[in-house]
Amino acid sequence: MSRILLVDDEPNMLSALQRALRQSKPLAGAQIETFTNPFDALNRICVCEFDLVVSDFMMPEMSGGEFLQALKDVAPTTVRIMLSASTDFKTAMAAINDAHVFRFIPKPWQQSELEQNILQGLEERQRLLAEAGLGPSAQELEARRLEEEEPGLLHVKRTDDGSIIL
């Protein structure tokens, strides 16, 4: 089950974002937590591990870039996504370069684009964990995917000499 953290100083925006994720069938069952204050969100991250964080860029207490940079230092394998109403190229580049943001999504977002970016971010998280030796390898993830698609596919029966029993 995926754990997703949403951070935005506007409660209405947080509600809309949470609703959008809950309506997504592929993200059904994901645990979603929301915070309007980035400092509170950082405190939570120190206590609980998240797979992915989506943060607004413009917040009064701390910019999204600063928040995601601090997050990178505290939880380097957590995937970081930034939302922003700003279309300023410098804003996007600073976020990508300084905080190693995985995706930059403009507000208002498109439901399908948001969902696709979150799913890709969760895949990236698995890759980061495998790279760090903290999670399953790419081969193990592919084996799980194949087994989900075709149960029993990977269970091969063999004889004592190693021959496959059909």
Question: What do these coordinates show?
Answer:
- Keywords: Phosphoprotein.
- This protein has 166 residues and is of the alpha/beta class.
- It has a single domain, classed as 3-Layer(aba) Sandwich (Rossmann fold).
- 46% of the residues lie in helices and 15% in strands.
- The chain has six helices and five strands; from the N terminus they run βαβαβαβαβαα.
- The protein has helices at 11-22, 38-47, 64-74, 89-99, 111-131, 138-149, and strands at residues 3-7, 31-35, 52-56, 79-84, 103-106.
- A five-stranded parallel β-sheet has the order 2-1-3-4-5, with helices on both faces.
- β3, α3 and β4 (79-84) form a beta-alpha-beta unit.
- The chain is elongated, with a radius of gyration of 19 Å.
- The two termini are 35 Å apart.
